[in-house]
């Protein structure tokens, strides 16, 4: 029987968890809301999730636990340093040590975008290259960098924050994700219409565009330009073999990916674009916990 890991992907609104093996097979899975009250509440929820996996999959057995979390993580110790703005109290936390103490299983923790990229890089059907950039286009922009087949984390595990390059647009300073994310798309649409935010989603803007609404189409074209502009910069810096795009609407809009590719290639240096593939991710929202399980099994 292939070794199995309890795999957990902590998101701002939901925690995806399950049991996976070294082949990336999902043996069991579930999902639960992420507490928004305290770090202690999140840890208690993680322990409940682990108990649930163990009860539901006794015949498989788990030899370790892999956890992907927002924020900066010291991967050598599984210590959550901080930087997870959407999770209250989620800092200065020896998460791996706590989980190991409470469960008796070795636990391994890394940044959630790194593990999402790892899952897609190892098991995604479109992954083909040693030098790969992985981007998630969602509420924000996250990602992972693979150089010569290895996940690059930076000298102090704080690298790979791809959405946080400084960015200036329309007279405003910010970060790339402030302008080019799905949240940025909604903001740009509302600026164009003068409407107030009433729970509008990026998905609904794509639906409006498909129905022929001019303002929605213009907002999406502006977003494509902003995404392509940032990616062009990364192409010039890394000259990758491949870029994989996942997250949210991008996973269901193939023409959107095609237009981003056109714009990125238009804006990047021609010499840096040669041979670069830009493809859609294939694992959807399971990539994070598949990557977490694989990471734990490869570390234990």
List the topology elements:
Blueprint: E1 4-10, E2 14-21, E3 26-33, H1 39-56, E4 64-69, E5 72-74, E6 79-82, H2 95-103, E7 107-111, H3 112-123, E8 132-137, E9 141-147, E10 150-152, E11 166-169, E12 172-175, H4 176-180, H5 182-193, H6 202-210, H7 214-238, E13 242-246, H8 254-267, H9 270-273, E14 277-280, H10 287-299
Parallel strand pairs: 1-4, 4-7, 8-13, 13-14
Antiparallel strand pairs: 1-2, 2-3, 5-6, 8-9, 9-10, 11-12
Helix pairs in contact: 1-2, 3-10, 5-7, 6-7, 7-8
Describe this structure in words.
- With about 300 residues, the chain is an alpha/beta fold.
- About 40% of the residues lie in helices and about 25% in strands.
- It contains ten helices and 14 strands.
User: What is the strand tally?
Assistant: 14
Coarse shape: globular
How are the strands of the biggest sheet laid out side by side?
3-2-1-4-7
> Number of helical runs?
10
What Rg is obtained from the alpha carbons, in whole angstroms?
19 Å
Overall mean confidence score, pLDDT: 93
The helix content is 40-55%
In this structure, how is the largest beta sheet organized?
A: 5 strands, mixed
Task: Output the structural class.
Answer: alpha/beta
Report, as a whole number of angstroms, the end-to-end distance. 17 Å
Q: What percent of residues are in strands?
A: 15-25%
Low-confidence stretches: none
N to C succession of SSEs: EEEHEEEHEHEEEEEHHHHEHHEH
């Amino acid at each position: 029987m292939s070794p199995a890991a309890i795999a957990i992907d902590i998101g701002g609104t939901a925690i995806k968890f399950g049991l996976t093996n070294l082949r990336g097979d999902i043996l069991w899975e579930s999902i639960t809301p992420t507490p928004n009250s305290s770090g202690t509440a999140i840890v208690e929820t993680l322990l409940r999730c682990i108990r649930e996996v163990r009860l539901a999959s006794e015949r498989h057995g788990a030899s370790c636990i892999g956890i992907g979390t927002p924020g900066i993580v010291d991967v050598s110790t599984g210590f959550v340093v901080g930087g997870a703005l959407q999770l209250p109290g989620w800092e200065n936390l020896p998460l791996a040590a706590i989980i190991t103490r409470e469960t008796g299983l070795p636990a391994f923790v890394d940044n959630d975008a790194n593990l999402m990229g790892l899952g897609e890089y190892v098991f995604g059907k479109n992954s083909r290259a040693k030098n790969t950039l992985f981007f998630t286009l969602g509420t924000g922009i996250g990602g992972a960098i693979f150089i010569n087949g290895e996940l690059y984390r930076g000298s102090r595990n704080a690298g790979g924050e791809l959405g946080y390059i400084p960015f200036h647009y329309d007279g405003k300073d910010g970060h790339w994700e402030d302008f080019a994310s799905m949240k940025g798309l909604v903001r740009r649409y509302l600026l164009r219409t003068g409407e107030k935010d009433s729970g509008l989603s990026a998905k609904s803007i794509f639906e409006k565009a498909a129905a022929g609404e001019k303002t929605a189409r213009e907002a999406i074209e502006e977003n494509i330009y902003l995404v392509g502009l940032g990616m062009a910069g990364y192409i010039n810096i890394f000259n990758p073999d491949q870029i994989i795009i996942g997250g949210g609407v991008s996973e269901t809009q193939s023409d959107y990916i095609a237009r981003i590719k056109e714009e990125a290639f238009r804006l990047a240096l021609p010499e840096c674009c040669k041979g670069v593939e830009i493809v859609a991710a294939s694992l959807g929202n399971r990539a994070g916990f598949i990557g977490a399980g694989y990471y734990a099994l490869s570390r234990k």
